[in-house]
Write a structure and sequence with these properties.
The complex is a heterotrimer of chains A (325), B (601) and C (293). Helix content of chain A is 79%, strand content 0%. Chain A is an all-alpha fold. The two termini of chain A are 33 Å apart. Chain B is α+β, with helices and mostly antiparallel strands. In chain B, 30% of the residues lie in helices and 17% in strands. Chain B has 18 helices and 21 strands. In chain B, strand 8 and strand 9 form a beta hairpin. The relative contact order of chain C is 0.18. Chain C contains eleven helices and no strands. The two termini of chain C are 27 Å apart. Chain C is elongated, with a radius of gyration of 22 Å. The chains are: A mainly alpha (325), B alpha+beta (601), C mainly alpha (293). At the A-B interface, helix 2, helix 3, helix 5, helix 6 and helix 7 of A face helix 1, helix 8 and helix 14 of B.
């Protein structure tokens, strides 16, 4: 418990460090946000630009701006977007759950299929199917995720016109709650597959490695010699050992998934944080950018913490089950 | 430890599940491969026509000027040639594409949802403080303005049922329609008009639109008198829906800064034919028919949805399968041409004439090399704008010879155009003292859509011995700042006329407008004669006299060549044949759609 | 991404003996990867001489597909440039950026990991916290910010990529050092009075090489993908031809002109795949447990 509390404290410190890093980066960069804002409204003259500078507090010193930013963040205020006439919090809030939905679905898909493939290749490591599966999985990891996405768009837009290739919902949708979920689900298929395909390889390799280790372990040999059916051996014990490292690693990879989500959201026009971030980068919308960096970092930290907790809970059982031979 | 792994009989269910997965994936790949094959054949036949590709010819307006005003488009019936005698069955039989859409012989029907696909993201919905297409398309549905404009740039009644311009030109009196109300039921009065005009004057980025307004008198609720410090013919066009939306004073006049007022998006209350029901920043804008609109039995449509999609390809696909009904942001010329070949989509270059986009190459005349007029002229002679329009843009843009677009009454077709002449170019350079290969320049461009133009210029200038390097800005603000500060040598740019030259043209050439902001006088050009001419034209009410003054202005500018004009991209619009009275007036989609209706299919 | 591939095998890698190399070469996939990589390198360095079209020249009408007459092998892009020339020449930029980034990653990552693992204690703690700051930042997002703010020159892109990918290598190096520093041969070296630096560089590091080599090959693949992603998003240097840039520039046309994005994408895919196959093969070869025998 005490260790957990210390972890949380470290995490808060981590968040502060991240804020400092990003804030400094954005302020070190060449470019004048006031000119940017003026340009976004359509034009400007020096008086207007000076006014903007005063309004947004851009004329204060770096330390003053950083301090006021941190204070506001602590109160839950991430500032207002330079581009949109809205608070950063409201923008992020609207885009948050589509991204989480996308990433979670992709993760589940990658884990389930990855583990299945991993188990299969572990049990028959030299079969041709196994080799093919391995190469296929590796292919998924080697393809640029945006290219995979584009290829899928070409396929499903021109040839198999059965799945929507853009957006999260049908704009003219006019149905009940359940039908609405089905609609979102249909739109979710391609982006989630594209994102998940990327990680399939790693999880299958990981599952395979764990499976191999377990299958050769004392514990399994004992179970077999006791006459337990093959099914029980594999399903109950080895499987658990294959899944756990995959799940923990997946949790630690949340950040990488978020990165992939940026590209996938751009290709499929998924209205998530990734697109918001990309647009913000291009528009030099610093408050939104800082906000998205902060939120995604927070998410990663939270998921890491959770993964750690989960791993600790399950850990003792691994030690019992699969000690190295 | 090294006990061999005995072959394990796997549970049949699991094994077949795995096999299925693998087979499914492999079949998908195989099918994909064949799909690619057939795709190639289709595309090869489609694109074999002589067209030029360009990236975003007509849609570089994301970065370009904020919206222009939109005078009315649909008031006059004759915007499109209408075949009256086709019934619905014959409509379905129409095999060929666009050209003119046959109208059903029944009259307008009420109802239906119109979906507009757009890549433009509005910052908010208040057009008095923000210019640009992105704000004006939803803005003109949500807000009414005093006037609409027909296809001849003549003002038509809208919120102002009549108006009078004083003989001395120093005031304009508007008589408002009786009984008009805002979306919250409050009456629209001259106080609101006054508030809107003053707000625009003080906040709108286009300073020249309302600068001469001294005050707006409101003798009674239906009458507003705009008083001017000088004669200002542009004021009428400035009262188009996109440039002067009438916003509710009782909501906005609370001391908060108008540019960041929360009501600019939240619970937006407007004066127009549609009211806001859903707004998600950067994703969707949903508007519903306003039942108490001041024009009876209008609008026809029940709902207008603006679906924002960063990928123009998705919009193109939406148009093809009928889920998107209208769009002006189809991306590249290739997409436009693809839609033109599609019988289910009508594509037209008609409309948006008032916007007047011009793409040009501008020089920083303060630069030591480029301060020499001979060098600029040489560069002008080296560039083939026909190549840009016909090959790079695949015929979807047209060559532009001056800074005022050809569709404007003020365009001077006789000004020096510097048609491509490499020998003349080389001669000029030699006379200026630059032997072949001696000059090195850099060129900027609005990323990413103007890259093809910039890359072409690099190649064209190589022909006359100038080495040019691309300066790549990662995003629009970087480019804008660089040009605003005069850190560039040459840049491709996209600037809009915005109807009356006073609004969109003067700002580039007036020596007093060298203020270090983007889309002002960024070349550093200074010519006293030009300043005088522009000043005179701004106050001259007689159209013919203005035409002559602007004619002279264009002659001088082309002679001095601070800017070499390249092409005018029209605003290509694609719409579903079911859309009747599409917005193809001089302000195009930046027009209220109260006359638009959908034919039943 | 590299530590995932290593998973549970990292702790037990043996220094590569002859047995390991034989294993590697008997692994068909790994050998295929080697050939692919050779092919890519040949194409990158010799290709421009064999097929010496300038990728930036406008050679034909834009967006003409492969097989159309008067059009070079793989068709033309949005400007009328030769797609094949782009593919042949694009590799150099991508590989160069990735190689420099990989070098940076290895230098920073190994240094920090080695120091952290060897000294332990407060230094370890501090360095790991520092590593964590960079590890929690979503890679592409942070790289985007750096490039967008500071400019897309190839060096800056390499630095941006280096900044986001080094933590994994640091963690891996640290894990290896933690494992190895208590072994006999290290204690022996300490006993005869070798300096810390010497022990790190000459004694431990060579033994830590196997997983590091594997990780580096995988990092190369990751760097190429990241560079392509940045270029695709428009954050690449437009003066150079690169595969990711080709895809990004032709993105709005891909539905009508699939060849403009398919071929550059294939090139990226093949290159990264070769690194993945090799890395995978090395991992299998160095770690007997994974061979499934």
């Amino acid at each position: 418990m005490k260790r957990f509390a210390i972890r949380i404290l470290w995490s808060i410190g981590l968040v502060l460090a991240v804020i400092f890093l990003n804030f400094s980066l954005i302020h070190l960069a060449p470019g004048d946000p006031a000119t940017v804002i003026a340009g976004e409204s359509g034009a400007g003259d020096p008086a207007v630009i000076d006014q903007i500078r005063a309004d947004y507090g851009l004329d204060r010193s770096f330390v003053a701006q950083l301090a006021s930013y941190v204070v506001r963040v602590a109160q839950g205020d991430l500032g207002d977007s330079f581009f949109f006439n809205q608070s950063v919090v409201s923008l992020i809030w609207a885009r948050l759950w589509p991204t989480i939905l996308l990433v979670a679905t992709a993760l589940i898909f990658a884990i389930v299929v990855g583990v299945l493939v991993g188990i299969f290749t572990a049990r028959r490591p030299e079969s041709r199917l196994s080799h093919s599966a391995t190469i296929l999985a590796l292919a998924g990891y080697s393809m640029p995720v945006f290219w995979t996405g584009l290829m899928l768009v070409i396929l499903f837009a021109s040839v198999f016109k059965v799945l929507p290739i853009s957006g999260m919902r049908d704009v003219q949708f006019d149905g009940g709650l359940l039908a609405s979920w089905v609609d979102i689900g249909k739109h979710l298929i391609l982006p989630a597959f594209t994102l998940g395909f990327l990680f399939l390889a790693q999880y299958s390799r990981l599952a395979r490695a764990s499976m191999l280790e377990v299958l050769q372990s004392d514990f399994v040999r004992t179970a077999r010699s006791k006459g337990l059916s093959e099914r029980v051996v594999v399903y109950k014990h080895a499987l658990r050992n294959a899944v756990i490292p995959v799940v923990t690693v997946a949790g630690l990879q949340f950040g990488t998934m978020l990165s992939g989500a940026i590209l996938v959201e751009t290709v499929f026009n998924w209205p998530g944080l990734g697109r918001l971030a990309f647009d913000a980068v291009l528009r030099r919308d610093a408050p939104v950018l800082l906000g998205v960096l902060l939120v995604s970092t927070l998410l990663v930290i939270v998921v890491n913490l959770l993964t750690d907790v989960v791993y600790r809970i399950i850990d003792p059982r691994i030690r019992v089950g699969g000690a190295a031979a | 430890m090294s006990q061999p792994v005995r072959p394990i009989a796997a549970g049949p269910r699991r094994r077949s599940r795995l096999l299925f997965t693998i087979i499914a994936v492999m079949s998908a790949l195989a099918l994909f491969a064949t799909a690619c094959g057939s795709d190639a054949a289709d595309t090869a036949t489609e694109v074999l026509s002589d067209t030029v590709t360009s990236d975003d010819a007509a849609t570089s307006d994301e970065a370009a000027e904020p919206e222009a005003a939109e005078p009315a488009a649909e008031d006059t019936a004759g915007d499109q040639a209408v075949d009256t005698s086709l019934n619905e069955e014959e409509l379905e039989d129409l095999g060929s594409d666009d050209a003119n859409v046959a109208a059903v012989d029944s009259g307008p029907v009420a109802g239906g949802t119109l979906v507009i696909g757009s890549t433009q993201i509005p910052r908010h919905l208040n057009g008095t403080v923000q210019s640009g297409l992105a704000t004006a398309v939803p803005g003109t549905q949500l807000n009414a303005s005093p006037l609409l404009f027909d296809e001849n740039f003549n003002p038509q009644p809208y919120l102002a049922e009549s108006w009078v311009v004083a003989d001395d030109g120093l005031s304009v009196t508007l008589n408002l329609v009786e009984g008009a109300v805002f979306h919250d039921g409050m009456p629209i009065t001259s106080e609101d008009v006054a508030f809107s005009v003053i707000t625009a004057r003080d906040n709108h980025p286009f300073k020249t639109m309302f600068a001469p307004v001294t005050d707006v008198a409101t003798p009674d609720p239906q009458t507003a008198v705009i008083n001017l410090s000088q004669s200002h013919p542009a004021i009428l066009l400035a009262m188009s829906p996109g440039l002067l939306p009438i916003i509710p004073k009782h909501i906005f006049d609370d001391g908060q800064d108008m540019a960041t007022h929360p009501r600019n998006t939240e619970d937006f209350v407007g004066s127009g034919p549609f009211k806001l029901v859903e707004y998600e920043a950067g994703t969707i804008i949903r508007m519903e028919k306003f039942d108490d609109f001041f024009i009876p039995e209008r609008p026809y449509l029940d709902e207008i949805i603006i679906e924002i999609n960063s990928d123009p390809t998705a919009i193109v696909l939406g148009l093809e399968n009928g889920t998107t009904h209208v769009s002006t942001t189809m991306g590249s010329a290739a997409n436009i041409l693809r839609l033109q070949d599609n019988p289910d989509v009508v594509v037209t270059a008609e409309g948006h004439e008032a916007i007047g986009q011009v793409q040009w190459l501008e020089f920083n005349v303060a630069d030591p090399i480029l301060s020499d007029q001979a060098v600029r002229q040489a560069i002008a002679y080296a560039i083939d704008r026909e190549f840009l329009a016909d090959v790079i843009d695949q015929g979807t843009t047209f060559p532009a010879t001056t800074g005022i677009v050809a569709s404007s009454p003020f365009h001077n077709a006789a000004s020096e155009a510097y048609d491509v002449d490499l020998d003349a170019a080389r001669a000029l350079l030699a006379d200026a003292g630059y032997a072949d290969g001696d000059i090195s320049l850099t060129i900027d461009y609005i990323p990413p859509q103007q890259a093809p133009y910039a890359e072409y210029v690099v190649q064209a200038l190589e022909e006359i011995g100038i080495t040019t390097e691309l300066n790549v800005s990662p995003d629009f603000p970087t480019w804008a700042e660089r040009v605003a500060k005069g850190e560039h040598q040459m840049t491709i740019n996209n600037v809009w006329n915005w109807g009356d030259p006073v609004i969109g043209v003067h700002r580039t050439y007036l020596s007093s407008n060298r203020v270090g902001a983007i889309w002002t006088n960024n070349t550093g050009y200074e010519n006293a004669e030009v300043d005088a001419l522009l000043d005179k034209a701004a106050q001259e009410f007689d159209r013919d006299a203005r035409i002559e003054i602007y004619g002279e202005f264009q002659d001088i500018v082309n002679e001095d060549v601070p800017i070499y004009f390249l092409t005018t991209p029209p605003f290509w619009q694609a719409y579903n044949p079911a859309v009747q009275n599409p917005s193809v007036g001089i302000w195009g989609l930046m027009s209220p759609m109260h006359e638009v209706w959908l034919a039943q299919q | 991404m590299s530590d995932l591939m290593l998973g549970s095998g990292a702790e037990a890698m043996a220094p590569p003996g002859r047995e390991a190399w034989r294993m590697f070469f008997r692994n068909k996939a790994a050998v295929a990867g080697l050939f692919l990589l050779l092919g890519v390198i040949l194409m990158t360095f010799l290709g421009p001489y064999v097929y010496d079209e300038d990728p930036k020249d406008i050679v034909a009408r834009p967006l003409k597909g492969p097989g159309t007459e008067d059009v070079p092998g793989l068709g033309t892009d949005y400007l009328g440039r030769d797609v094949l020339a782009g593919v042949v020449n694009g590799g150099l930029t991508s590989l160069r950026v990735a190689a420099i980034a990989a070098a940076l990653i290895v230098m920073i990552g190994v240094t920090i990991g080695a120091v952290s693992g060897f000294y332990g204690g407060v230094i370890d703690n501090a360095l790991m916290r520092f590593t964590e700051v960079f590890q929690v930042l979503p890679a592409l997002l942070f790289a985007m910010v750096v490039v967008a703010l500071f400019g897309p020159s190839p060096w800056k892109v390499s630095i941006a990529i280096g900044l986001v990918l080094w933590p994994q290598l640091a963690r891996l190096t640290r894990a290896e050092f933690l494992r190895l520093k208590n072994m006999e041969f290290v204690k022996a070296a300490q006993a005869i009075g070798s300096s810390d630096l010497r022990i790190i560089m000459r004694v431990i590091l060579p033994n830590a090489l196997p997983p590091l080599i594997v990780a580096t090959t995988l990092v190369m693949g990751g760097a190429i993908l990241l560079e392509a992603g940045l270029a695709f998003l428009g954050l690449g240097d437009a003066n150079e031809v690169s595969w990711g840039l080709m895809i990004g520039q032709n993105r709005t046309n891909f539905i009508t002109s699939w060849w403009t994005v398919t071929f550059p994408g294939l090139a990226i895919f093949v290159t990264v795949l070769s690194f993945s196959l090799i890395g995978d093969g090395l991992q299998d070869a160095f770690n007997p447990k994974l061979r499934g025998r």
